[in-house]
Design a protein that fits this description.
This protein has three helices and no strands.
């Protein structure tokens, strides 16, 4: 295949990663936070919308931090395993 055939593959990979992100726990929480906040604003409850936004923001931030540390830990484990084989 030509080099131009790589372009759709990379676009497909990017879209697959973005869709997979939306299916994770953090993605579902982001969508839920947006929905709850907008619904509370629709109901005319800006204080409750602000409170729910703050609570969801803390929860989502916690999940991003844990995901970051999990990836760092996975890299360290992989590096330790690769050094032991040699």
């Amino acid at each position: 295949m030509s080099t131009n055939s790589k372009i759709p593959d990379s676009l497909i990979e990017i879209m697959k990663n973005k869709i997979l992100l939306l299916c994770t726990c953090t993605g579902i929480e982001v969508l839920t936070a947006i929905g709850v906040t907008l619904y509370l604003l629709y109901l005319g409850q800006p204080i409750l919308a602000l409170i729910s936004s703050i609570v969801f923001a803390k929860l989502i931030l916690f999940h991003f931090i844990m995901d970051y540390y999990d990836k760092q830990n996975s890299r360290k484990i992989f590096q330790n395993l690769s050094f032991k084989k040699t």
